[in-house]
Amino acid sequence: MGFMEYVKSIEWEHESYPAYEDYVFLPLFALFFLSARLFLDRFVFQ
User: What is d(CA 20, CA 43) in angstroms, rounded to the nearest whole number?
Assistant: First the structure.
């Protein structure tokens, strides 16, 4: 199955409740944005 067939097979109107696995990367995103803001404040905007 190619990529286009996979995309066409997704039921885009189906809604489901989020699972705990969906929140695994949330702390990583928070740390990334915190470190990016700290870097920008320290080295770019000063």
Answer: 36
